[in-house]
Specification:
Layout lengths: L2 H12 L5 H8 L3 E6 L2 E6 L2 H22 L5 E6 L7 H6 L5 H4 L30 H12 L8 E5 L5 H15 L5 E5 H14 L2 H9 L3 E5 L8 H16 L3 E6 L11 H7 L3 E5 L4 H14 L6 H10 L4 H18 L5 H7 L1 H4 L8 H11 L4 H5 L5 H18 L3 H7 L5 H17 L1 H17 L2
Parallel strand pairs: 2-3, 4-7, 4-8, 5-6, 6-7
Antiparallel strand pairs: 1-2
Length: 454
């Protein structure tokens, strides 16, 4: 397997484990430079990508590499902005390996001006009870941008089609009026551009770029949390566009009121338009989605096989698509039709993975992720306000969900006294009783904990 084939196989694996927005932001314009002994060297376009891949996605990348070649033990990253092939170029590369061909790299055909993927349209968006309000609002916005539902805020768990819907709006608006200045950008990319412009002294040109748009689409808005300068810049951009009746569209994995460390002035603006949620699809809708995607990818599977996937992959549309791709790879490798028995065997790891049990580690990990902190931040004896409150929530959840003793909870957090754990649990319990907003926040964290452990 060549370096290009190896990296494409890695990208094919990773795209089903992170959001499409993050995938496009941090893995575009990357490739393997060299393989020496047990180490892979990957080129990245800038220092921001290097830092992000090292800190956030290194374990995921290393795992994907190891699954393909278990001799690989380490990944390193090097900034090489001039020696890169774009993902569009890689998509057109004639690769001999069927497993890679089956993806066709449709995710990578991005419009350079708008950042939109033309693949995402309303025509191939399957509507069900779980997303019909969001779809109807999105359709209305695409017909009259800036005049109805401004801003439009769509939220829901990962892998349920938020990015598809956001980009479908943008593509529909351009289809109707090619002169419209539409820009799609993930919040992480927005943040990196703000940081870069501050460092390079180009903040005015950045302001002009965003404030001249007719339609601004910000994906994964929860990543604005805790980033004060980014929030300030987005606040002024939001106001500038809103005053001109320009359309603003946002998505998040949670409602505006449940985004921690978000400035109140931004939260109130997010809540000032239309808020629509997308929940998990029911069985009939999952089956319809599988049939639609099967037709798109020209995958011929029996109804029994599709019903098996729909029955067993219930919470994440992206995982269903991953299952389809795995079966398609087998079909092309073996040039034969799949029956349900073979499908069950091939999807055993995806569907029948042993359930995890909720543990203190999972609770601490999920609380840290929710508040955009590192696990060690919660455990170390910091007195910072932005850490104390999440730590108290973690203590409360250990007590409430696992019935852990107060001395045990104290020991989990740098050996704190059991009275500290008692105080934290009492404080959080009282706040839950008095605040519906805070109760929703706790429920979102619990949902993450139990989805992680099932």
């Amino acid at each position: 397997m060549t370096k290009e084939e190896l990296w494409q196989a890695v990208l094919a694996d990773i795209q089903f484990h992170i959001s499409r927005a993050n995938f496009t932001t941090w893995l575009a314009n990357t490739e393997i430079i060299s393989k020496q002994d047990k180490c892979i060297l990957v080129s990245v376009p800038n220092s921001f990508s290097k830092e992000w891949l090292e800190n956030k996605y290194n374990k995921l990348i290393l795992k994907a590499l190891y699954n393909i070649n278990n001799d690989i033990k380490e990944v390193k990253y090097e900034v090489k902005p001039c020696a890169l092939k774009t993902l569009d170029h890689l998509a057109s590369t004639d690769l001999p390996k069927p497993k890679l061909e089956q993806l066709n790299f449709q995710e990578f055909k991005i419009n350079k001006k708008t950042n939109l993927n033309p693949r995402y349209t309303f025509d191939n968006f399957v509507i069900g009870s779980f997303n019909e309000l969001a779809q109807a609002a999105a359709w209305a916005v695409s017909k009259k941008p800036g005049l109805v539902y401004n801003p439009l805020f769509i939220y829901g768990n990962v892998g349920l089609g938020k990015t598809h819907l956001l980009q479908a709006i943008g593509n529909k608006i351009i289809e109707k009026s090619a002169s419209k200045n539409v820009l799609y950008i993930p919040a992480e990319k927005f943040t990196s551009e703000v940081v870069s412009s501050i460092r390079n002294g180009t903040i005015e040109s950045l302001k002009a770029k965003f404030r001249q748009t007719d339609v601004l689409i910000l994906d994964d808005a929860q990543f604005l949390a805790g980033k004060e300068k980014t929030q300030e810049e987005f606040f002024h951009t939001f106001n500038s566009l809103y005053e001109k009746n320009k359309q603003i569209i946002l998505s998040s994995d949670r409602s505006p009121k449940a985004i921690p460390a978000l400035e109140e002035r931004l939260r109130s603006r997010f809540e000032g338009g239309m808020i629509a949620d997308i929940s998990a699809p029911d069985y009939e809708t999952r089956l319809a989605i599988l049939k639609t995607k099967g037709q798109e990818k020209k995958i011929d599977l029996s109804n029994e096989t599709l019903e098996y996937i729909a029955s067993n992959v219930q919470k994440n549309i992206r995982e269903m698509e991953g299952a389809l791709n795995s079966l398609a790879a087998y079909q092309k490798l073996n040039n034969e039709q799949l029956d349900a028995k073979i499908a069950r065997k091939l999807l055993k790891n995806l569907i029948s993975s042993p359930p995890k049990i909720v543990s203190p580690k999972i609770i601490i990990q999920m609380v840290a992720e929710f508040f955009d902190l590192k696990e060690r931040d919660l455990i170390t004896p910091s007195r910072k306000k932005e850490i104390v409150r999440p730590r108290q929530i973690a203590m409360y959840l250990l007590r409430n969900e696992l019935k852990s003793s107060f001395p045990f909870i104290g020991r989990k957090f740098s050996g704190k006294d059991h009275t500290t754990a008692i105080y934290a649990c009492t404080k959080i319990k009282k706040e839950i009783e008095n605040s519906e907003k805070f109760t929703d926040e706790i429920n979102l964290i619990k949902q993450r904990i139990y989805s992680q452990s099932c």
